[in-house]
């Protein structure tokens, strides 16, 4: 299973390159990926599989995959229909289609995400794949991003399904906490599932997520809107894959929670409402794709009712119809794509005679529509017969409720027959067409969201481009599968029955084409007869501009407008545009709230020790004096320097407390910060102008003093409130045992807390990019210029530094250049020493990178912007990218080797000259940190230094000319 996920990820990454090389024919190659996965599913259908990769077992975060009958059914649909859709894409798109490579990558990635979703045993992992499908569906629906309808549909689907996913996440956390495990297998294996008010709320939230994903009323409107997507997306996501995710989740949880008090009211009520309302809408719309879209919503409601009913018979019928629906609905969507491709329109009022012109396509659509309507001998009939019997015999419902549900299913099935006939008639029948539109206009079908769907204007209204054999292959295979499966119900029964047997209830009946004269058969005859009548009365069911039950799409728009208005009002109330006011509000809250809580609630005694040695008191006094001096000095550079003294004082205190690593890092960071301040202050006047000076403000002084006092008091109370033994006592031993190092601080950063470090260095990369974009305005300009790039460069001149002579004589310091020439190699060697020694002594990648950054800073200060290019002629962006790739790559490497991500391996070897050598693989992660810090410093020097030098020089040149 893990291999299938990784192969899909690799194929998604390679898809743009494949499309660039092979054009649209690359889809044939990509189709082999899900096809290979389908082969694995078929080979292991009857053999349950489990995969576990330990990640964070103490909090239940592991990669747990589970393959059983229900997962096998969904995997077969996802991978099998995914392969056919990819083959279909090879003839649906042209080679010059915009962003075709990205589309291919997204489609393959979606197949992999759906496979991960249905095989996840850990609910948190399931949620990750759930949201991955949400994001990928947003990208696929919005493929035609230049069209407003596509953008609106993509955003609508993202907001609705994303909001449902957030609700589901809360439910997962609550349910996992109540159950003591996040594994679905643990949840379903218990004889007594968790119960209580919290569990009821969690189940309701999980159902909200499932129902939004499966487009169930009242959150169904995103699915018809998503018809703005290319037809392959509709056939895959909205028939066979994404919308089945919610149905799958309901089916997965039904064995444990079908008797939960919130289950049946939500599942049955909303499922029946979807089946009826959407079925009615399918009889009203004129766009073939919308007919199928509303039909999908109706069928999804039917599926939700069946898998949520909670009986073995309903479960078997539900899984059967999941298979049937995926086959016939994907087929019909692909047929619509061929019609749109060949006739230029999907408006059933404008199509006529295609049955005669495309008999194979017509026969394919008829087979699929018969299955959708539940007509023998198609699979849809087998599933619907089983469903009617299961609902009729559902002893989990009271007699009145059972009668209402049965009547709702029968009525919904009548509507299904009606719109199935309407689809076939609209697409293929010989019928009169409306008069030719006026020149320059075109008839249109209005989507309820406001999207306009129309065919092109043409003199030949009934033009037709016959599809090729490869274009027809996918829908023909799906229609044939519906027929073959319908003719072999016992074979299908044997493969689906194991899931149904996981639910408690009476013995199961078998899937069959003929069960004798039963109430289900009588109901089917009634359904077909009334369905034909509904089709005949279709013109008497007009689409209303103001539906009596309201318009969900308009309600969505109204909700967005209300949220925008509320956010604007809230922002206007709390954000007045005054930075001092915002800061004062935050700091006053910091002072008042903790003080009140400490005064009223705490009983913890705090003992105060002024210092451990008089030297600490002296250092603190110096820090306090310099901090006060920073508030009164008017020279900008002097203010920065005294602020720096407070930072160096903190480093000394760290050293006195026995934390050399912290002290070293503090000194290096403070030095680098001072340099950056100086670089920026070059563009400012030396002294603060008189008009910018402010008088002493007592309120600000009181606020500052109060904030400092409260923070110190809170720190004291926090330390005194500890009741358990602190974890730091075990860190040195754990650092050596698990990380192979004696420097606990560095081992924490690169091993025990490597995930935190990976997040922090990612922030550093983003910060460097932000600084560069602010200074460069648009993009990076590559590496810093070298000495040879200067028009004043003379290679015959000798200097201590390669670009030393390019510095203006008034600013050139020979002493600084000579000193830099002498100490630069030493500092770089010290940087390398810090890097390699950091695992067992003070240092590490961060300290080593800062030291190398200071060496580069020294070269820049001594030789100017051209000297920076001579010191390191590399693009800072490349250094940052290499560091982040190396750090993240260690996580992936550990995973591929079967170890937890970012775990270390210890390698010990004996070499002839060096002796016994011990290397920890965390060194590679530390190297990534080293490169990121060096790249960050290089980026800052290049932007705030070299680039700013260039802009200041350009600004001075016109001024000098004007003065002359």
Description:
The chain starts with a helix and ends with a helix. It has a two-stranded antiparallel sheet. It has a two-stranded antiparallel ribbon with strand order 3-4. Strands 5-6 form a two-stranded antiparallel sheet. The chain is elongated, with a radius of gyration of 35 Å. It is mainly α and 964 residues long. β1 (49-56) and β2 form a beta hairpin. The model is unreliable at 434-460 (pLDDT under 50). 68% of the residues lie in helices and 3% in strands.
Q: Give me the side-by-side strand order of the main sheet.
A: 1-2
Structural class based on helices, strands and sheet pairing: mainly alpha
**C-alpha termini separation:** 77 Å
Instruction: Describe the main β-sheet briefly.
Output: 2 strands, antiparallel
User: In percent, how helical is the residue content?
Assistant: 55-70%
Taken as a percent bin, the fraction of beta residues is: under 5%
Rg to the nearest angstrom?
35 Å
Report the average pLDDT across residues.
84
Count of separate DSSP helical elements:
34
Number of strands: 6
Shape estimate: elongated
Poorly predicted tracts of residues: 434-460
């Amino acid at each position: 299973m893990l291999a299938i996920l990784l192969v899909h990820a690799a194929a998604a990454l390679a898809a743009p390159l494949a499309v660039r090389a092979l054009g649209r024919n690359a889809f044939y190659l990509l189709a082999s990926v899900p096809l290979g996965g389908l082969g694995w599913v078929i080979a292991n259908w009857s053999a349950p599989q489990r995969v576990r990769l330990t990640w964070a077992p103490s909090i239940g975060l592991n990669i747990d995959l589970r393959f059983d009958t229900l997962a096998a059914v969904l995997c077969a649909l996802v991978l099998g229909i995914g392969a056919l859709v990819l083959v279909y894409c090879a003839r649906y798109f042209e080679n010059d289609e915009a962003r075709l490579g990205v589309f291919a990558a997204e489609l393959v990635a979606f197949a992999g995400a759906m496979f991960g979703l249905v095989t996840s045993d850990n609910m948190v992992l399931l949620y990750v794949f759930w949201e991955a499908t949400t994001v990928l569906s947003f990208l696929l629906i919005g493929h035609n991003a230049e069209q407003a309808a596509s953008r609106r549909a993509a955003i609508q689907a993202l907001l609705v399904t994303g909001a449902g996913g957030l609700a589901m996440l809360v439910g997962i956390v609550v349910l996992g906490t109540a159950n003591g495990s996040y594994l679905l297998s643990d949840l379903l294996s218990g004889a007594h599932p968790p119960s209580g008010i919290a569990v009821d709320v969690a189940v309701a939230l999980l159902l909200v997520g499932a129902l939004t994903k499966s487009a169930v009323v009242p959150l169904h409107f995103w699915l018809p809107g998503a018809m703005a997507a290319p037809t392959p997306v509709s056939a895959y996501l909205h028939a066979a894959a994404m919308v089945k995710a919610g149905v799958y989740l309901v089916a997965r949880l039904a064995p444990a929670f079908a008797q939960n008090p919130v289950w049946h009211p939500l599942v049955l009520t909303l499922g029946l409402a979807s089946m009826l309302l959407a079925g009615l809408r399918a009889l009203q719309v004129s766009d073939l794709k919308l007919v199928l879209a509303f039909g999908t919503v109706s069928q999804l409601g039917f599926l939700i009712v069946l898998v949520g009913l909670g009986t073995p018979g309903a479960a078997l019928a539900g899984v059967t119809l999941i298979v049937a629906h995926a086959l016939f609905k994907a087929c019909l969507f692909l047929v619509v794509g061929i019609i749109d491709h060949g006739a230029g329109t999907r408006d059933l009022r404008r199509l006529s005679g295609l049955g005669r012109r495309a008999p194979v396509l017509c026969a394919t659509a008829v087979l699929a529509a018969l299955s959708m309507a539940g007509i023998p001998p198609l699979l849809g009939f087998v599933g619907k017969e089983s469903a009617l019997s299961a609902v009729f015999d559902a002893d989990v419902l009271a007699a009145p409720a059972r009668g209402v549900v049965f009547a709702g299913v029968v009525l919904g099935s009548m509507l299904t027959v009606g719109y199935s006939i309407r689809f076939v008639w609209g697409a293929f029948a010989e019928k009169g067409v409306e008069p030719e539109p006026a020149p320059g206009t075109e008839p249109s079908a209005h989507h309820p969201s406001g999207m306009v769907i129309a065919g092109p204007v043409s003199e030949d209204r009934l033009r037709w481009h016959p599809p090729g054999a490869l274009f027809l292959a996918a829908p023909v295979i799906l229609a044939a599968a519906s027929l073959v499966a319908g003719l072999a119900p016992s074979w299908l029964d044997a493969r689906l029955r194991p899931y149904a047997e996981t639910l408690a209830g009476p013995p199961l009946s078998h899937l069959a084409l003929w069960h004798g004269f039963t109430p289900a058969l009588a109901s089917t005859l009634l359904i077909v007869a009334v369905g034909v009548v509904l089709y005949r009365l279709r013109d008497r069911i007009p689409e209303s501009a103001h539906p009596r039950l309201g318009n969900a799409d308009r309600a969505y728009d109204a909700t967005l407008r209300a949220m925008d208005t509320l956010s604007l009002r809230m922002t206007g109330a709390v954000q007045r545009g005054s930075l001092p006011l915002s800061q004062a509000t935050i700091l006053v809250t910091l002072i008042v709230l903790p003080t009140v809580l400490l005064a009223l609630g705490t009983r913890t005694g705090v003992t105060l020790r002024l210092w451990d040695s008089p030297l600490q008191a002296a250092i603190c006094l110096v820090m306090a004096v310099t901090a006060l001096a920073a508030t009164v000095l008017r020279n900008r550079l002097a203010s920065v320097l005294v602020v720096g003294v407070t930072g160096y004082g903190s480093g000394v205190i760290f050293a006195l407390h026995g934390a050399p690593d912290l002290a070293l890092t503090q000194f290096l960071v403070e030095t680098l910060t001072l340099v950056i301040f100086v670089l920026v202050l070059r563009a400012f006047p030396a002294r603060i102008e008189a008009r910018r000076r402010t008088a002493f403000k007592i309120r600000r002084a009181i606020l500052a003093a109060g904030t400092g006092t409260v923070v110190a008091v809170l720190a004291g109370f926090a330390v005194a409130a500890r009741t358990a033994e602190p974890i730091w006592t075990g860190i040195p031993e754990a650092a050596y045992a698990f990380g192979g190092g004696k420097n606990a601080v560095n081992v924490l950063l690169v091993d025990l807390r490597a995930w935190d470090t990976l997040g922090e260095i990612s922030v550093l990369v983003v910060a460097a990019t932000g600084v560069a974009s602010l200074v460069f305005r648009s993009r990076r300009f590559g590496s810093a210029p070298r000495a040879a790039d200067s028009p004043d460069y003379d290679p015959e001149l000798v200097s201590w530094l390669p670009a030393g002579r390019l510095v203006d004589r008034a600013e050139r310091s020979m002493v600084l250049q000579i000193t830099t020439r002498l100490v630069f190699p030493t500092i770089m060697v010290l940087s390398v020493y810090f890097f390699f020694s950091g695992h067992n002594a003070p240092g590490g990648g961060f300290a080593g990178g800062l030291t190398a950054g200071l060496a580069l800073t020294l070269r820049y200060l001594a030789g100017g912007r051209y000297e920076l290019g001579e010191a390191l002629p590399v693009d800072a962006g490349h250094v940052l990218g290499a560091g982040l790739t190396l750090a993240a790559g260690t996580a992936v490497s550990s995973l591929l080797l079967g170890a937890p991500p970012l775990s270390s391996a210890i390698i010990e070897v004996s070499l002839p000259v060096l002796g016994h050598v011990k290397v920890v693989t965390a060194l590679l992660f530390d190297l990534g940190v080293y490169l990121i810090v060096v790249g960050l410093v290089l980026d800052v020097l290049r932007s705030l230094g070299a680039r700013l030098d260039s802009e200041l020089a350009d600004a001075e040149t016109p001024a000098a000319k004007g003065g002359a």
